[in-house]
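Before relying on records like the one below, remember that each one covers exactly one chain. Contacts with other chains, cofactors or solvent are not represented anywhere in the record.
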Amino acid sequence: MDENDAPKRGRGRGRRGRVGPNPIDIHVGQRVRLRRTLLGMSQEKLGSALGLTFQQIQKYERGSNRIGASRLYDMSQVLDVPVSFFYDDMTSQLADHANNPTQGFGESDMPSFDPDPMAKRETLELVRAYYRISDESVRKRIFELAKSLAAVSHTRSTEDDSS
């Protein structure tokens, strides 16, 4: 048996029949990024605390590399959250996938998942800026302003759709 006769192996563990990162790995990576960004921590700083390069942190955050159990525990310690934080807010589709790991091995692929709007850089920067406002009454007024602007914007887009 020469090397051409050797059985072909799929790319990565548990990815048979699926192209790209596992949706659960993507979700966990987004939660790592969310917490890191909310703390104002760079990828370099997180990597240094874990003995990793920032490129490895990038791969974890994109979900292209899976985070092992011991590494996830170490991240939870550095980011000061329980391990369960990384699985919080998982959509029902992702949870169903987690409970049925053979799903996706057949003809149909997993549906695509939209990135969590809470993981967007703009959202994270807005939240950090908001909490840097020391005057609680100013913060509350900005919150009310944002809610009213969103309501006006939603009303206008609804009116545009109906005409």
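The chain has a mean pLDDT of 79.
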